């Protein structure tokens, strides 16, 4: 347990030394929140009977989780592996699950910080109300965060070079973002895209957040969404542990 704690502390120190990670994980989502809040202000979307900024909050939270879970995690792991950092780990008593577990916990803490900052701006600057239960909100956040982290680790397991990491991760990130109903509803998409979008974890995580944040729904009403995201989590995490390479 002591070794695991030291690994988490090491990962945290390394994170705060990487200025680009600080920008993309903390500043970039905040920029989107403020930008959309200023653009839309109190504009009401009549079809949904709510303000546009209220609709956007959940999507921006999901986007922030994907930035850390997919983009920063996968590209960071591939770069560190290419530099030989994990090769050096492999000749120490440090276990593979300790490395992966430490990375997941450290990045999960960053995701909590991201979400808290977005909620503070949304609630105090743009008067967004959280209609549902905060514990349920945290549960959705936790499942979604670990799901995207698992996908990031899975991508890193198969990407062979740092040069290839960014375009591959961006392709997955933008697919999840634009087909996940983050910035516009699925109902305006062509039918075949709607069918594809309904299997993506970002779609169901987004729906779960909105049902809790905007409609105050309970656990039984979002259970389907949580099960689908959990299935992605279990599958991605299992495969990433199996195929994770030290070099």
Protein described:
The mean pLDDT is about 85. The protein has helices at about 1-15, 20-40, 50-80, 85-90, 95-125, 135-160, 160-180, 190-195, 200-215, 225-245; strands at about 45, 50. Strands 1-2 form a two-stranded antiparallel ribbon. By secondary structure, the chain is an all-alpha fold.
Q: What attributes characterize this protein structure?
A:
single chain; 247 residues; 77% helix; 10 helices; mainly alpha
- Low-pLDDT segments, ≥5 res: none
The overall pLDDT, averaged over residues, is 86
Number of H- or I-type helical stretches: 10
Structural class: mainly alpha
Principal-axes shape call: globular
**Proportion of helical residues:** over 70%
Topology:
Blueprint: H1 2-17, H2 19-40, E1 44-45, E2 50-51, H3 52-82, H4 85-90, H5 96-126, H6 134-158, H7 162-178, H8 191-197, H9 201-213, H10 223-243
Antiparallel strand pairs: 1-2
Helix pairs in contact: 1-5, 2-3, 2-5, 3-5, 3-6, 3-7, 3-9, 5-6, 6-9, 6-10, 9-10
Brief description of this entry?
By secondary structure, this protein is mainly alpha-helical. The chain has helices at 2-17, 19-40, 52-82, 85-90, 96-126, 134-158, 162-178, 191-197, 201-213, 223-243, and strands at 44-45, 50-51. Helix 5 packs across helix 6 and helix 6 (134-158) packs parallel to helix 10 (223-243).
